[in-house]
Specification:
With about 280 residues, the protein is α/β, with parallel strands linked by helices. It has helices at about 40-50, 90-95, 130-140, 145-155, 175-185, 205-220, 230-240, 255-270, and strands at about 20-30, 60-75, 80, 105-110, 115, 195, 225-230, 240-245, 250-255.
């Protein structure tokens, strides 16, 4: 018989979760200047701008990219963001990172979120080696930490597998090589909140496997990971939770497999995907 005076040991499942990101009724709008607001193509619009030099430029097109989105993310979660092109996924990540002003609502974060490819902004005229050092410093690592992790970063990126690319200027890299190096730099440091936009879509299957393993490690280190990807299999393999944005609104929030299945059914009916800014 159990001792009624003995305090039962709480189950792990009952332990309180720690919020890392709170998005409360967020609206994000911005203006697209020079866009084909009147239905003309981009080339025609550019020619019109050249002919209008010296005149007052017309007002740009206002885009309401995120519309009243609310959710709470917790420590240890990996959350995928899915939705049609122009649904507001990338814009929402920028708002969480503090890089995109919020018109209404609030974003609360624990620590400074790191948006992959922005925090580790690389310089095209510098070598990959110099960019690893500067990128590591930009991510908040000390010079000693950068030196200690340098070989690990380069090996993880895989850009030296065929030739000594790390000693070449970044402008000689393919877009995939640059994206892999950015990911390697960002993943070398633990983050309270790491935001990844399409990083895993770049590179071969071996690099994607390495990336997924590193995301699992970041989660084990008590961080929170957000991942935007057009690959539904990447979302279900990497994340246990998913947010589905459509036309700027949060359509569904739940287990990744269930949300992806609902989204795939939606796109199969011909209702999506769409196009436009605010992806």
């Amino acid at each position: 018989m159990a001792d009624p005076l003995k305090t039962p040991t709480p189950r792990v499942a009952d332990a309180p979760r720690t919020p890392t990101v709170v998005v409360d009724g967020v609206h994000v709008t911005y203006t697209v200047n020079g866009g084909p607001a009147d239905g003309r193509g981009a080339a025609t619009a550019a020619l019109s701008r050249m002919l209008r030099r010296g005149r007052t430029a017309p007002a740009g097109r206002r885009v309401h990219a995120v519309k009243g989105v609310s959710f709470v993310a917790y420590r240890g979660e990996a959350i995928g963001l899915i939705g049609s092109n122009g649904s507001g996924k990338s814009t929402l990540l920028k708002a969480i990172a503090g890089l995109q002003p919020v018109e209404r609502g609030q974003v609360h974060t624990m620590g400074q979120p790191s948006l992959l490819g922005v925090n580790a902004a690389l310089m095209s005229d510098l070598t990959g080696e110099r960019n690893v050092i500067l990128g590591g410093l930009a991510m908040g690592m000390s010079r000693a930490e950068v030196r200690e992790r340098y070989d690990e970063i380069v090996d993880f990126s895989g850009i030296n597998e065929k030739h000594d690319a790390i000693s070449l200027p970044m402008r000689t890299y393919s877009s995939g090589m640059g994206a892999r190096l950015r990911f390697a730099i960002a993943a070398a440091k633990s983050h309270d909140v790491l935001l990844i936009d399409e990083a895993l879509a770049t590179g071969d299957a071996r690099f994607r496997r390495r990336s997924q393993r590193r995301i699992d490690e970041l989660r084990a280190e008590a961080g929170t990971v957000f991942l935007v990807s057009h690959s539904n299999s990447t979302i279900t393999e990497t994340c246990e939770r998913a947010l589905w944005l459509e036309s700027g609104t949060l359509r569904m929030d739940g287990p990744a497999k269930e949300v992806v299945a609902a989204y795939e059914e939606f796109t199969a009916t011909g209702a999506g995907p769409g196009t436009g800014p605010g992806a």
